[in-house]
Design brief:
By secondary structure, the chain is mainly alpha-helical. It is built from 16 helices and no strands.
Length: 344
Amino acid sequence: MGEVLRSLSAPLAFLLLAVPMSLLLDRLGYFHALAERVLGERDSRFALWMLAAVVTASLNLDAAVVLLTPLYIRIAQRAGAHPEPFAFMPVLQACLASSPLPISNLTNLIVQERVGVPTSAFVRWMGLPTLVMVLVGWLVHRRSVPPLGRLVDERSSGDRRALVWGSGLTALLVLGFVAGERFGIRPWVVVLLVDLVLVALTRHLPLREVPLATALAVLGAGAAIGLLLEVVDLRALFVSAHAPGILQSVVVGSIATAACNNLPAVLLGLHYVDGGGSRLWAYLLAVNVGPALVLHGSLAGLLWQRTACRLGVRVGALRYSAVGLRVGGPALLAGTLALWAISG
């Protein structure tokens, strides 16, 4: 159990600090100012969808949720469009596009560390399935995304200051995510530094926005998984002669993620899935995409809900699952078929 809880400590620290950071950036006026400059007169819906995919894959899913959710909501509000479909873009891509590189998802880093697979293996096994899922996800989700009208020009004198400071801190955040690990700097430390600067700029300390209850709930789920691993042998769920390896791993991975959270789920699966083979990649694919189906499936989903709610987009667990099943279900099926084609 101690091993599982230690694996959750850094992600939970990130969660506790990232929610206030998003609030402080918005209080600074950064997302309002950035929205003014993102949209012109042409339709940018597909560009926003692909931007979320690129940010997720090249940085990580938490960066996509923290940085893009407020931006997309502000863009929709400024353009007079219903914000919910735009708010869903970052969290859906946090699931669909978080598999091709180790940095894309903490689950990938756990697999790389525990199994020892190189970055090239992630690209080879997960690159095509990710591309297929992103495209299939857009074909489904675009039906619910309204056109964006022209923005009303209501720029204030504070926009330039907010844009300069916000962009600089965002660049620092991205640099810290990408290069920090090489120097032993964890992502939550980078977020803490950005938080301190933002508190000084805004003169506001958002203690009420720290999601302590959410973190404790995830910690409890992790403890339960740790105890389960100590007392129950679940090998029969992962190894069966009566089901195709890839399909079985996807089903078990999806169920494990829905039952608790993707971080305990990946730690659970690595006890039983052979390293480097198609079962491993199928299980990881399900663990990464599974959080699209249930809100508590990842810390990114919980972080997204808090961020969106603060900006007026309130999405409950049932609504989240309805959208996630509609978009993530077909995407996961398509990704599984693509993975099967590669393994063959």
